[in-house]
Specification:
Elements lengths: L6 H52 L4 H8 L6 E5 L4 E4 L3 H4 L9 E5 L2 E10 L9 E8 L1 H36 L1 H16 L16 H51 L3 H31 L8 E4 H17 L4 E5 L5 E4 L1 H17 L6 E9 L2 E8 L6 H4 L11 H6 L6 H11 L3 E7 L3 E9 L1
Parallel strand pairs: 7-9
Antiparallel strand pairs: 1-2, 1-5, 3-4, 4-5, 6-8, 9-10, 10-12, 11-12
Length: about 450
């Protein structure tokens, strides 16, 4: 069973459950108390009538028999001789057979009916010996029926009350959690749109409660994060610019040393300098490109481009590198496939993917580049049958400077910036890129560009 994760729903359930318990307890107490008060009232009425009849008999008022017999004022009283023989008043056959017990109000249950019975004994008027038993009797069935009716009403009302309680609780909770929904929406917008300038909207008339303070705190935190990101981008851009000149000097000096080398040892040392200088120069170029894209300063000239021609140029440029590992390059782009793109940037992205396929492909393997129309866009697929990337790394390959295998990457001079650069270029075009890979079976990069 799936657990309920919504806080609003959980609070509503807790609130409704608590209200259910409180309603049941309160109604039970009220019902029980009402029943007890009704029973006590009946008992007091019975005792009062018996007491009044007793007083009249003690004062030798013989008309009391007529009053009791009339069944009006003393309708719940009957008079018996000392031996228990019925004289006058209320006559209930089953009650007549119950033994007398003086001065003790009690309940008697006969044939499923409940009665309150109260007996007292009084001397007899002159001329009558032995005295009298005065018995007061009243049924409590009506009170029990009233209690049952109250229980039935309670059972009918509880679900209705709970329904309105749940609806009201959910509505109140939903209103109370609007700031939380606003926070979540802003966080999702920042994540999906990659717009760190977004902030949580705080109404000017909002109450300064805990959620208000949370929103203010998060906005302050986003301000600091944005400032740090801006500083980092600026540092990357400035450092890359500053490194270009010394790297160019090192490269020039390395090539000069290579030209004037007198023996193989000097040539080897000079070649190492040139290779490493080229590697660092490529790294700096990628850093500059990423920095310009991040700062929205990258020149972007979108135009109608023949994708087939562009792919052919990328494949031709990689043939020499592929030949070193006897890797075959294939291009399959339908004639007349046109895309809206910056030719230089898209060429750089596709070339980088082909280069990766060659570097990490197996000997005598293959790398293919294909394209096809996909709905209102164009799909470009670059696939190889090389080493592949494990599932634990596949989502991290777009992270800058992340390298799946340090030893392998060092072998090919990888900096961990190639794929992040490709992703930035594709997203700059408004497209998206995904990767699918399997260890030992190769990797497939899929680009979708909208028309």
């Amino acid at each position: 069973m799936k657990r309920i994760t919504s806080i609003k729903t959980r609070i509503t359930i807790w609130y409704t459950s608590l209200m259910f318990v409180l309603i049941v307890v309160v109604l039970s107490l009220v019902g029980g108390l009402s029943y007890q008060l009704s029973t006590d009232s009946i008992e007091k009425d019975v005792i009062l009538q018996v007491t009044q009849v007793t007083e009249k008999l003690s004062k030798m008022q013989r008309d009391v028999f007529d009053l009791v017999d009339s069944n009006e004022e003393f309708k719940n009283v009957s008079i018996y001789e000392a031996n228990g023989k019925y004289i006058v008043g209320q006559y209930i056959y089953d009650i007549v057979n119950i033994p007398f017990e003086e001065g003790v109000p009690r309940r008697e249950s006969i044939d499923g009916k409940e009665y309150i019975v109260y007996d007292t004994k009084t001397p007899s008027p002159p001329g009558i010996g032995g005295g009298f038993w005065i018995r007061g009797v009243e049924s409590v069935n009506s009170t029990m029926l009233l209690g049952r009716s109250a229980v039935i009403i309670m059972l009918i009302l509880i679900p209705v009350i709970l329904l309105f309680t749940a609806l009201g609780g959910y509505y109140i909770t939903k209103r109370a959690f609007r700031p939380v929904n606003n926070i979540v929406k802003t966080a999702n917008d920042i994540s999906h749109q990659k717009d760190i300038t977004r902030r949580i909207e705080i109404a000017s008339d909002s109450k300064e409660d805990e959620l208000h303070h949370l929103s203010v705190t998060l906005n302050n935190m986003l301000d600091k994060i944005e400032n740090l990101i801006i500083q980092e981008k600026q540092f990357t851009s400035d450092a890359s610019h500053e490194l270009r000149t010394p790297i160019s000097v090192i490269l020039a000096q390395g090539e000069y040393l290579l030209d004037i080398a007198k023996d193989e040892k000097e040539k080897e040392l000079a070649q190492t300098i040139v290779d490493k200088a080229n590697q660092v120069s490529k790294l700096v170029s990628r850093l500059l490109l990423l920095a310009r894209i991040d700062q929205h300063r990258q020149t972007f000239n979108k135009d109608k481009i023949d994708l087939g021609v562009l792919v052919d140029i990328a494949v031709d440029g990689m043939k020499e590198l592929a030949a070193q590992k006897e890797i075959l390059l294939f291009a399959n782009v339908p004639e007349g496939t046109i895309v809206d793109a910056d030719e230089s940037l898209l060429l750089s992205a596709i070339t980088n993917l082909i280069s990766n396929g060659i570097k990490y492909g197996k000997e005598a393997g293959h790398v293919s580049v294909s394209a096809s129309k996909l709905g209102d866009g164009t799909e470009i697929v670059v696939a190889d049958n090389g080493a592949g990337i494990s599932e634990e790394h596949i989502d991290k390959i777009w992270t800058r400077f992340y390298r799946v295998d340090d030893v392998r990457n060092d072998e090919y001079g990888s900096s961990g910036l190639g794929l992040p650069m490709v992703k930035s270029i594709i997203e700059l075009h408004g497209g998206e890129i995904t990767a699918k890979s399997s260890i030992g079976h190769g990797t497939e990069f899929r680009i979708v560009l909208k028309d």
